[in-house]
Amino acid sequence: MDLASRPCTPHRDDMVPLTRREVFDLLSEVPEWSLKEGHLVRRFTLRNFRECLEMADDIGKMADIEGHYPDICISESRHVDVSWYSYFCGGLTMNDFIMAARLGVRVSSRQGGAL
Questions:
Q1: Over residues 39-57, mean pLDDT
Q2: Residues of the domain holding 99
Q3: Is 4 exposed, middle or buried (CB count within 10 Å of its CB: 0-12, 13-18, 19+)?
Q4: Backbone angles phi, psi at 74, to 5 degrees
Q5: DSSP 30
Q6: Residue 8 domain-assigned?
Q7: Which pLDDT score, from 0 to 100, does residue 68 have?
Q8: What is the CATH number of the domain that holds 81?
Q9: Rounded Cα distance, 82 and 42, in Å
Q10: pLDDT of residue 115
Q11: What are the backbone dihedrals phi and psi of residue 9, each rounded to the nearest 5 degrees, phi first?
Q12: Coil, strand or helix at 59
């Protein structure tokens, strides 16, 4: 089963982050995403600020459905930076990779990069 099809697991207090090896193995399954300071990150470039706001809102709605939330930053009125990280356990979890994969699928299925 590909990552985008997997369900996110509910947050549990005993969840532990993925190992370094697991993170690097999973990284190949989320093209265009990279690691930056332990976070799974990707920049999306859009045409204007309004599209950035719409994308950020759509990402928020998608995240709210799963109960797993990214950090989102709009910069230069055309970039949306998305960062997945599971703060509650101090590292990346499978949920971070699942959500990155889902977002990648959604963006690639839309023309112009917007959700």
A1: 97
A2: 18-113
A3: middle
A4: -105, 130
A5: S
A6: no
A7: 95
A8: 3.30.1360.20
A9: 6
A10: 56
A11: -95, 145
A12: helix
